[in-house]
Amino acid sequence: MAFSIDQFRANLQFGGARPNQFDVVMPAPPIASLNQADFTFKCRSASLPEENLGVIVVPYFGRQIKLAGDRTFGEFPVTVFNDEDWGLRSSFEQWSNALNGHLSNLRNAAAVPTLGYMVDATLTQYGKAGTVIQQYKMIGCWPSTVGPIQLGWDNNDTIETFDVVFQYQWWMSASTS
Fold it and tell me: Which domain holds residue 69?
């Protein structure tokens, strides 16, 4: 039978992975007061890392031969709950400002040692039984965007959130090296 719900269910091992079973651990960089436990708890959403293999197109007798090119890594976006103490928001602003000052347009050389502004983040996906089913480590993260917080008189019964987009050098998982 072409469309069998029983076959579909039988092939969806353990009922499928759930996108709400995750955490992100990011240590504080030496230039910001980021609270690791606070960030892990208030990280509302994240995206599993992206990778792309470039394509090298070589023309040959009117045809295009496609060869594998260089690997690039996408961005690592997260959405964070904002608290009334603004601890996380202030930490990301502090981190970003040390990289490029609002007024000076300069890096704070005293606060930012060579590559000392980067940290490694770990994203862990859990199964419904609480076991780790996949883990990614993003190497050399730093915030390239600290997003806006949308305010509005019609936003009742919600908690503020903001997005942070991290750049990173590469990612590793248990199945890659």
Answer: 17-173
> Would residue 23 count as lying in a domain?
yes
Nearest to 117 by CA among 127, 109, 125: 109
The whole model's pTM is what?
Answer: 0.84
Q: Using CA atoms, how far apart are residues 20 and 11, in angstroms rounded to an integer?
A: 21
Rounded distance, CA 122 to CA 132, Å? 12
Calpha distance 60→69 (Å, rounded): 17
CA 34 to chain centre: 16
Report yes or no on 2 lying in a domain. no
Cα separation, 93 vs 96, in Å, equals: 5
Centre a 10 Å sphere on the Cβ of residue 142 and count the other Cβ atoms it contains: 18
- Chain centroid to CA 20: how far? 15
Q: Is 106's pLDDT higher than 80?
A: no
Mind listing the pLDDT tens digit for each residue in 124-174? 999 988 999 999 999 999 999 999 999 999 989 999 999 999 999 999 997
